[in-house]
TrEMBL record:
Self-association and partners: Tetramer of two alpha and two beta chains.
One annotated Gene Ontology cellular component of this protein: cytoplasm
Matches recorded under Pfam families: PALP
Function: The beta subunit is responsible for the synthesis of L-tryptophan from indole and L-serine.
Cofactor(s) the protein needs: pyridoxal 5'-phosphate
Protein name as catalogued: Tryptophan synthase beta chain
Length: 454
């Protein structure tokens, strides 16, 4: 029996197409609505924010979208990413299960986010755009867009959620090293930010707030476009290079996952690993369990309502049907800043509503327990967001142990935690607490969902 630890594809095997799950959905995705008219939004409604090429990707039902060669050329800097067999973790757990993980932390910015940052920057450059605005939670997305902006000569302004801006100064420094301007959100730089500060001058911020500020900058200045690191269909599309590579790597390993796992905040790394496998299933392939893992403090899929809602706090975006906690919901200030979003990607929400995927929520201390165990076995310190996927993979392996089943488990290690060591320090010093959301605040936020006719 082979004791191989990693499965590596060469550069010629980088996917030539992004995979679009829309083509294989048994029920079409609900339409995006204009916030004023409540009618389906058209390309003209999105054009102030995005170049037309990305708008076309947002609405297309084509199964495969060709990846332009200049983008594949940049992907070569870290793609294909390796697939690892976590043999030491398996041994520590005493499980008959086989555990694999796709290591997206090998990218220059340290996470899966450049998979979409590079295409978004390139398409904007092709459209003559020289300035982009965006938001970021933990900083993985902000750093990735800053990296892509440096490659293509685009100025990037990043509104970083205040709590993460304070918790993660090194990720802020990384953005600035790549040439981006990083602003704590809510800020005094925008009308929406000033309004939020007037309500709460010490607000920890949220991704919904930061999105409002970034969208406002783009909407007011024709020279600026907006870039989003998760949630939208074209972002899910770009991330499918992860799962497509994994399918080839499992063929190399002579194996096939029974369980596919990804952490979920907005949905991008989960979609990246899961959608290509789900597509195989929808086209007649074998059924797998696909699990989306979220923080118990911001439980969008496990506690949210499936309804039309705004993607931001100031209500500047179109309405999307998604699992939501309400656009005004303020999640507790946990260390997984990339998962503190009130909504879930419409496409991830849709497949959950159809019963094609499962959802699970964990508190952060249990996730850091798993992240530390993983690091001590496999040598990689996971980002706080990624520890949620690690926790679920370990629990699934322990289930296999209890049931005597030798299942194959795959999870996406969406990024490393080298800039998150403050969180690990809090964990080791016993200062990390599990925070619950405010039920009253959630009820209020859900009561304010926009009225949309069924």
């Amino acid at each position: 029996m082979s004791n191989q630890l990693k499965y590596v594809l060469d550069e010629t095997q980088i996917p030539k197409f992004w995979y679009n799950l829309t083509a294989d959905l048994p029920v079409p995705l609900p339409l995006v609505l204009h916030p004023g008219t409540k009618q389906p939004a058209g390309p003209a409604d999105l054009e102030p924010l995005f170049p037309m090429a990305l708008i076309e990707q947002e609405v297309t039902s084509e199964r495969e979208i060709e990846i332009p060669e200049p983008i594949r050329d940049v992907y070569r800097m870290w793609r294909p990413s390796p697939l690892y067999r976590a043999r030491r973790l398996e041994q520590a757990l005493g499980t008959p299960a086989k555990i694999y993980y796709k290591n997206e932390g090998v990218s220059p910015a340290g996470s899966h986010k450049p998979n979409t940052a590079v295409p978004q920057a390139w398409y904007n450059k092709e459209a003559g755009i020289q300035r982009l605005s965006t938001e970021t939670g933990a900083g993985q997305w902000g750093a990735s867009l800053a990296f892509a902006g440096a490659l293509f000569g685009i100025d990037v302004t990043v509104f970083q959620v205040r709590v993460s801006y304070d918790q993660k100064p090194y990720r802020r420094a990384l953005m600035e090293t790549y040439g981006a301007r990083c602003i704590a959100s809510p800020s005094d730089q925008t009308d929406s930010g000033r309004a939020m500060l007037a309500l709460n001058p010490t607000s920890p911020g949220s991704l919904g707030m930061a999105i409002s500020e970034a969208v406002e900058i783009a909407a007011k200045d024709p020279a600026v476009k907006y870039a989003l690191g998760s949630v939208l269909n074209h972002v899910m599309l770009h991330q499918t290079v992860i799962g497509q590579e994994a399918i080839k790597q499992f063929e190399m390993a002579g194996d096939d996952p029974d369980v596919v796992i990804g952490c979920t905040g907005g949905g991008s790394n989960f979609a990246g690993i899961a959608f290509p496998f789900l597509g195989l299933q929808l086209r007649g392939g074998r059924k797998r369990r696909i699990i989306a893992v979220e923080p118990a403090s911001c439980p969008t899929l496990t506690r949210g309502t499936y309804a039309y809602d705004f993607g931001d706090t100031a209500h500047l975006t179109p309405l999307m049907k998604m699992h939501t906690l309400g656009s005004t919901f303020m999640p507790p200030a946990t260390h997984s800043g990339g998962l503190r979003y009130h909504g879930m990607a419409p496409m991830v929400s849709h497949v959950h509503e159809l019963g094609l995927i499962e959802a699970r929520a964990y508190h952060q201390k249990a996730c850091f327990d798993a992240g530390v165990q993983f690091a001590r076995c496999e040598g990689i310190v996971p980002a706080p967001e990624s520890t949620h996927a690690v926790r679920c993979a370990i629990d699934e392996a322990l289930r296999c142990k209890a049931e005597g089943k030798a299942e194959t488990i795959l999870f996406n290690l969406s990024g490393h935690g080298h800039f998150d060591m403050g969180a690990y320090i809090n964990y080791f010093e016993g200062r990390m607490i599990d925070q619950n959301y405010d039920e009253g605040a959630l009820a209020t936020a859900l009561s304010e969902l926009p009225a949309v006719a069924a």
